[in-house]
Amino acid sequence: MIIGAIEAGGTKFVCGIGNEEGVIVERISIPTTTPDETMNQVVTYFKDKQLDAMGVGSFGPVDLDESSSTYGHITSTPKTHWNYFDLVGELRKHFSVPIGFDTDVNAAALGESLWGAAKGLDSCLYMTVGTGIGVGALVEGKLIHGLTHPEMGHIVVRRHGDDHYAGRCPYHGDCLEGLAAGPAVEERWGKKGHLLEDSPEVWEMEAYYLAQAIANYVLILSPKKIIVGGGVMKQTQLYSLVRDKVKDILGGYVQSDQLLDRIDDYIVAPGLGDNAGLAGAMGLVLR
Amino acid sequence: MIIGAIEAGGTKFVCGIGNEEGVIVERISIPTTTPDETMNQVVTYFKDKQLDAMGVGSFGPVDLDESSSTYGHITSTPKTHWNYFDLVGELRKHFSVPIGFDTDVNAAALGESLWGAAKGLDSCLYMTVGTGIGVGALVEGKLIHGLTHPEMGHIVVRRHGDDHYAGRCPYHGDCLEGLAAGPAVEERWGKKGHLLEDSPEVWEMEAYYLAQAIANYVLILSPKKIIVGGGVMKQTQLYSLVRDKVKDILGGYVQSDQLLDRIDDYIVAPGLGDNAGLAGAMGLVLR
């Protein structure tokens, strides 16, 4: 089967060709500008590829309710050009193949469960900490949807006692994303993250927020594996800081060997590296 | 079908007989003392009832992993008599019928989705605020399990600025349960909840904590209905306080009519009243 995959992001659309084994044969990157411009290039890329199916993991919010008149649309995004853009509909105009569609982070969680760090598990959580904080999850073998889709990056967290930064989420100010996404780190400390490498207080505070969120995800979803990636996690010292703080917060309450004794193997980096989203988009076709 | 149902709680075991329509024909209550004493009465009650199946919703933590050697056990509970008690095993000694088993709150969520306030929905959350805070959830038609089972009552919440109470969770101090369960309200204000009815600051603070938790559940699970019950919610003024604060916290970010325009019908009291747990235990048989 030849699968066309799209990881539709706010800054770029990564497009690629692969198969049902999760093998990516080729990939290209197209800048996210206006729907007209971007989709033109997307369609041109896939046109002669003789696709059997397509899978799309998209930035959100998106409408995933198949009974809705705006199914397949990006909905109320701050990227105004894309507000209520019918992404799946536009693809259907050009490709008469089955199209799988979900959020970028749900796709990545699926990809990691099929071929990555959570391979073989029916439950995992995928978190990306970059220009925003996005989280997808597979629970009991299913990607979570409901009223809408999860927006776990925007949960309320307890503020760090030394943190006087206001937060920069346009909706919530100091929610998790407002306090701990890459741009918040930069604005709070006045420098880009990679220039703060030698400032332990920066990563201590960052881990404080991420660990709170992860502890809450554990308590609410009980995932069998937690995968954390994204640009901010290139500061790899964060992994052990976060693991330690998650253990502290949970205080031994959740009785699981993975948490108590093997947390290094429980909170991990993506097994698929930067391909989690694209491979996961391919995986959406298999559902 | 004659179903024997048990809602196994820390203070009492509610036992009853019903059918696959969720009709409860009779119910009795047995105090939770030692496993010997309590289980003796439970077995005696059900002995001649000619059961076709049993369903058990239990206080936790419990082991729900069918491949585990301690499946069906209550695990590391502070109620020491019941520590690692093999609840399902004990029932199997006396009744050779299929036995469904899950947490009390997962059972209640299931009951509400089959016959209560979330009837017909494949997604809902059931929260009880009483001597503890317990939460169960149905997502994509399935009760959530994973690494263990959710323990959503113990999430981290942001502290209220006027709250100097330390919290009373033996594991976490000031987690949600430590700050907002019934005994915390009583200890903080020095009086039982029903004597504080005319002190608006009490319920304002209580709603502040419950609303944070519910907002986080919405962002993480996106349930299609949120059902809140338990002793503390007998202060029914809490419902509108909580709804208003959930809306405030979410700040219009989650685009859903239920949240934006019909939150009175989204955050609701249990449709099954105090029978949610017992009916839900019956429902476990049907899975």
Q: CATH homologous superfamily of the largest domain in chain A - what is it?
A: ATPase, nucleotide binding domain
Q: Tell me the number of strands of chain A.
A: 10
Largest interface, Cβ cutoff 8 Å: A-B, 47 and 48 residues
SS-derived structural category of chain A:
alpha/beta
- How many discrete domains of chain A? 2
Tell me, briefly, the overall form of chain A: globular
Structure description:
The structure is a homodimer of 287-residue chains. Chain A has two domains: 3-106 and 275-286, Nucleotidyltransferase, domain 5 (2-Layer Sandwich), CATH 3.30.420.40; 120-269, Nucleotidyltransferase, domain 5, CATH 3.30.420. Chain A contains nine helices and ten strands. The first copy, chain A, has helices at 35-46, 87-94, 104-115, 176-180, 182-189, 200-221, 237-250, 257-260, 276-284; strands at 3-8, 12-18, 24-31, 53-58, 99-103, 124-129, 133-139, 142-143, 226-229, 267-268. In chain A, strands 3-2-1-4-5 form a five-stranded mixed sheet, with helices on both faces. In chain A, strands 8-7-6-9-10 form a five-stranded mixed sheet, with helices on both faces. In chain A, helix 3 (104-115) crosses helix 9 (276-284) and helix 6 crosses helix 7. The mean pLDDT of chain A is 96. At the A-B interface, strand 8 and helix 6 of A face strand 8 and helix 6 of B.
